[in-house]
Amino acid sequence: MAILNNHDDFEGSRGDTMAGVVVEVENLVKHYPPDVKAVDDISFEIGGGQIFSMLGPNGAGKTTTVEILEGLRNPTSGNARVLGTDILKGYSKIRRRVGTLPQNFEPFDLLKPIEAITYWASLYDMKISKKEVDHLIDSVNLTDRKNMMSKKLSGGEKRKLGIALSLVNNPELLFLDEPTTGLDPKARRDLWNLINEIRDKGTTIFLTTHYLDEAEKLSNDVAIMHKGKIIAQGRPDELVEKYGESTIIVLEGAGKLGLAKLKQMNIKASIDELDERNVLVPVKKHSEMKNMMANLTNSDIVIEDIYTKRESLEDVFLNLIGKKMENGVLKE
Questions:
Q1: Which of 145, 166, 217, 274 is a plausible cystine mate for 99, CB 3.0–4.6 Å?
Q2: Residue 27 pLDDT > 60, yes or no?
Q3: Residue 308's closest CA among 296, 318, 323?
């Protein structure tokens, strides 16, 4: 991936900041009258070179948090430092070191990607060469679309162009606010690969999302946000270990007949929502696993395969919130 790296005249450098803490938030609060607590006393840190995901439903406070850290909103109270700078005192000093892709961003419909990038660079008072523009276009895999009107790009291609624009200033910190919302599965995976490539080049990424699988696959660190508060934070595997309730035995191919037999055996089980051919059997204690596996394999249930899988962030979210989340909306 070719990301521009020849703008060393920007204020600051990647050096020590990227090796340490890039974002520090302490007791951050944002209230709106009469009594809306959009962000309610949250604290966290983001280390350099990581992907940090803020995960939660619509209205959780994710975007408000990002906009405060981007210098677009003032907090009601609390402290925040971005790239070592107090956001209330010196954001102008670091603005050129930060990239942003706002939620529901739409590129300039009547400009071609190469024109949009050149125009965006001018907003930073940057002169950008044709070679540099081509490098950015190539970095987001839009080379064969660079001379097409932006309005003709697909949804996924428009998001890629948005990311290219956010990389114009070669940022040390990149804010991506729900970048894959509304995209089809392939477009989402393409963006996941791109986000990982950007991180691998040393850029720290603050990602907001309501997709549980996205946070689990991409993130070094996840903060689960609900009603303005961070209710859990840690590496995805740490969260699963701490808040997960069981290991799952998968009976592949057991189907509804297998589920009925398990109920006759007084074994708690359910149909896999992602594949109705499979039956899921939760086992809460590791000490119970051996006996349960023996009971299942000795039963007359017809299966194609049997294996175990650990719980996911989806299970953690359900355990913490008590509700499932679909496309950012909590479901009973």
A1: 166
A2: yes
A3: 296
Q: How many domains does the chain have?
A: 2
Residue ending a domain, among 215, 241, 267, is 241
Reference 175, options 80, 46, 75; nearest CA is: 46
Are residue 97 and residue 199 in the same domain, yes or no?
A: yes
Based on the fold, state whether residues 191 and 259 are members of the same structural domain. no
Side-chain-side CA neighbours of 233 within 13 Å: the count stands at 14
Q: What is the dihedral of CA 34, 38, 43, 44, to 10 degrees?
A: -170
**CATH at residue 251:** 3.30.70.860
CA distances to 86, 218, 248, 290 from 285, in Å: 47, 29, 11, 10
> Domain containing 272: what range?
246-310
Is the Cβ–Cβ distance between 73 and 50 less than 8 Å?
Answer: no
Shared-domain flag, residues 176 and 31: yes
* Same-domain pairing of 59 and 78: yes
Helix (H) or strand (E) holding 16: helix 15-19
Q: What is the CA radius of gyration of the chain?
A: 23
Count of CB atoms within 10 A of residue 273's CB?
10
The label of the residue with tokens 């050096």 reads 15
Q: Which two tokens stand for residue 90?
A: 């010196």
pLDDT digits (tens, 9 = 90+) for 51-105: 999 999 999 999 999 999 999 999 999 999 999 999 999 898 899 999 999 988 8
Q: What is the largest CA-CA distance in the chain?
A: 73
Same domain as 192, residue 73: yes
| 79: nearest Cα among 33, 45, 32 | 45
